[in-house]
Amino acid sequence: MFASRQASGIPGLTPTDEKDGNLPDIIASSSLHEFLVNLHEKYGPLVSFWFGRRLVVSLGSIDLLKQHINPNRLLDPFETMLKSLLRYQSSLNGDTGESHMRRKLYENGVTKSLQSNFALIQKLSEELLAKWLSLPEAQHVPLCQHMLGFAMKSVTQTAMGSSFEDDREVIRFRRHHDAIWSEIGKGFLDGSLDKNMTRKKLYEDALMEMESTLRKVTKERRGKSFNRHVFIDTLLQGNLSDQQILEDTMIFSLAGCIITANLCTWAVYFLTNSEDVQQNLYKEMDRVLGKGPITHEKIKQLRYCRQVLCETVRTAKLTPVAAQLQELEGRVDQHTIPKETLVLYALGVMLQDSSSWPSSYKFDPERFNEESAMKNLSLLGFSGSQECPELRFAYMVATVLLSVLVRKLYLHPVKGQVMETKYELVTSPKEEAWITVSKRS
What's the confidence (pLDDT) of residue 239? Predict the structure, then answer.
């Protein structure tokens, strides 16, 4: 097995450990993203290493990505990773008609539930604004905590309906969500979970509790009609098995929460550190919305807001790694990728590549005035037809939230705060991010 790495000739690492491959190196780098940054720096845009006994190839440039992407395959690499981590049946094995239908159903579920829950998301945004307005000025606001709470309410009520209007349900959901995410968030199970029975039991109990909640909701909503259409209703209208409904609701709830929470956190955080951007955003909101509320139709006119969110995704490297299985032997540059190879897209590496993004470390929404920048972002799956449904959901929720906050508040940084980043499946601040707010007169 190890000999074939030499045969494929892709530069990179030989296994450090016969059984674990390069897992010890990944763990030493503290995250898969940071491991890939070092690897690509050392060996170039195409690298290889070992996950256990499995050959992994990582692509670290947009040019290579273009060569590898197969436009006929509708695989969401992010969802693929989540499914395999939860040990669900992944649609990795063939883009069959059935998995294509299931994918479409999932996307329609997101679209429909966003439309019918638009007023709800506005209401939750207004509630957060009221909470912030009631704070004494200069009081430090725990941004991550508030955004996670906001995202949880938005996602659970949009995905599963009104039983989550009860805060106790949301708090229970949050407890399980945190327990599950703290294990799968790392993006690869490093084997340590199986060695630690207490952790393993916590994780498995949380997963069971979460699944039983989802089963209960499925039962309550099957065959009935409600005045507000939610995500699970769309799945119930398709011809999915109960297990498939469970898995898809689980993926949407987990990924939807974490992506929405962190997109909102980073967007507000970057705005606090960039007065100009905040002012430009305020001007656009004022021009397009005036004193009126945001509507579904007006969102399309908020072009600068979209650029702010795109630049947030890029600067934060919101989802730094995605994965696909190489079904048939493939070629990238002069190299052959053997079939059955796990191919990683090192998105975090590509998002900070200065040949694609001039002054890549700067938070600059104006860069997306360029058509080419938007094109690059779509290629990476963060915009346009390739974007994952959870991100589409998050963009919409974040737009509504910003339209409520930015028109009423100035957002300020807390002086002297050093923000360190935790790179998992979704990127978040390592510690709480603090901000202050003051009222716009």
Answer: 84
Question: In the predicted model, what is the mean pLDDT of the chain?
Answer: 89
Q: Give the C-alpha separation, 6 to 342, whole Å.
A: 17
Are 252 and 234 in contact by the 8 Å Cβ rule? The answer is no
pLDDT at 1 over 70: no
- Look at the chain and count its residues: 441
| Residue 6 confidence (pLDDT) above 60 | no
| Cβ 309 vs Cβ 398: under 8 Å | yes
Cα separation, 51 vs 295, whole angstroms: 47
The rounded Cα 234 to chain-centroid distance in angstroms is 22
Amino acid present at 287: R
Average pLDDT of the segment spanning 341-368 = 93
Q: What is the mean pLDDT of residues 342-351?
A: 92
pTM for the full model? 0.94
Tell me if 254 sits within 8 A of 393, measured CB to CB.
no
Q: Which of 21, 38, 36 is nearest to 322 (CA)?
A: 36
Q: How far apart are CA 355 and CA 350, in angstroms?
A: 9
pLDDT tens digits along 150-179:
999 999 999 999 989 999 999 999 999 999
Tokens 């399309």 — which residue?
300
| 313 contacts 382 by C-beta, under 8 angstroms | yes
Pair 51, 188: CB distance under 8 Å: yes
Phi then psi for 142, rounded to 5 degrees?
-80, 95
- Give the up-direction half-sphere exposure of residue 13: CA atoms within 13 A in the CB hemisphere: 26
